[in-house]
Amino acid sequence: MSRNILLCLAIVASAWGLVYTNQKQLSPEYTIQWIIQDEHIFLQLNVTTTGWVGFGIGEPTSGSMPGADIVTVSVVNGAATITDRFAIDKIEPSVDSCQDWKLASAQETNGRTVVEVYRKLVTNDTTQDRSILPGENRVVFAFGSSDAFAYHGSNRGASALTFYGTPPPSIDMSDPTLESWFLGSKDFEIPAKVTTYASTSAVLPFQDGPFHIIGFEPVINNATAARVHHFVLRFCATPSEWFSYFLNDTADQDDARGLKGQCPGQLWGWAPGMGPYAVPDEAGFRVGPAAGDFQYVNLEVHYDNPEQTPGIIDPSGVRIYYTRNLRKHDAAVLVVGDAYARNPTQMTPDSIYKFEYDCPEAATVKFIQQDLNIFGSVLHMHAAGKQAFTTQWRNGSMISTINRIDFWDFAFQQTTPVNYVLKTGDRINHHCIYNTKGRSGVTVFGHGSLDEMCMNFLTYYPRLPQLTDSCGYVYRNNMTLTTYGSTPVLTDMGLPLFNPSQRDPVALEAILYGSAAGPCAADTYTQTYITTSAIEDIDSAACLTTISSIALAFIAVFCM
Prior knowledge:
The protein is mostly beta strands. The protein has helices at residues 3-15, 241-245, 361-367, 540-558, and strands at 22-27, 30-37, 40-47, 53-57, 69-76, 79-86, 94-95, 102-109, 112-120, 136-143, 156-162, 179-184, 188-190, 195-203, 211-219, 228-236, 250-252, 265-270, 277-278, 283-287, 296-304, 312-314, 317-323, 329-330, 332-338, 352-359, 372-380, 385-394, 397-405, 416-422, 427-435, 454-461, 470-476, 479-484.
């Protein structure tokens, strides 16, 4: 064994008395390693910079910087400074009243900064810290070129890490029954206008089924990514004239105005910040020729071209993963809120607006005949959005918050794994709050890039037989009414109820994160630390990578 490897062993053993068992490269410049022990998390941040280094637990649902719990470290002339911070906006994070992140070691060597920090998984500070929970946690990271903490510029990013516990479902690429098919824009030339909704229709090629669709992967062209606002993949009950207009081709939806039979059922949606999505193991979206299954799909791509630049060609789309091995349940999507973007309010500049919609008890008793298991939620607004959340009520009592984002950021929309049961007679209330600060004109609700929306897409099983895809608000004939079904009509419901039928307590809008911290609790955890800066003749960054590889190889040989 070489002298450097021996030194590496000494360094790791001295720093924690532990060997890191997990590693993730967050960017070409930034690598993180971690281990969980004694209800603490121990992190090593290894970054190509001689400036400050930052890492944070992001806003729990979206993963954005606003709403994040952040630690920053600077090393100046061998002396390190660590600061526990929190962010509530896209400005310099505030210093936390309780300094819960602790420093174990820090070093600058050969243009890299390597720091080791630790903290309790759950601290006593509930208003300026984020708990590090089992399963997937949204994270943010950044670094600077100077020792003084300052704006990071482009040196920042976001990701998702499972520090411990069970990770979310993923697409099992090793499954021999897994097949895939790509549906995308047919080298579509984005029109030289601000907002374009383009559609591409197709008959699913896997018709000798039935099959279950079990995953979706966005395929975004890097050259045109800034123009792609969002995707919506819908299924169509029949090959209508509207569907047929876009069959095996991509065209502007404005060219199909007046055609009948738009596809109502949403399968999947993508917006910036979202990655591949896997359906839980017990469910799948059923495809096939049998009654109740679907065969026809339409991909809607919303393009944003604010400079109205001509000649931009986009081939972006979605890769659909499917299997012939049917799962236990058929899945579907239910949209709550203002599902058709019909709110007539004109929001004036520099104002706060609050809206609430419900899917009332009187509706759920009509369309829910058996318990619905909700396993996913996508909250959706546009750029003026500030906060969104959905509550569930039963027998007059609130029993859950299905999903919530207190610090909305359009660039950080996610499919949130959830686990709730919706029963007949339940009520669902959906809230959206907007801030029109800095806008020059009124903001309306609609389908444009600068318009607003207020929706929550709930994925569930088992699929409702009548293919209901929405329940909530619709504005019609100068009335705010309640509707459910695949089209915004009331005749199949017979319930011209004012919407919302019941409002939630205003206190639910309160945002606690970022408020004054309570009493700080001392962390009595102690270890004997020796800083790596005492070892001057090797590259500690390469060292720690080497020792991790040795440790994993040892585990593979002797512990498996």
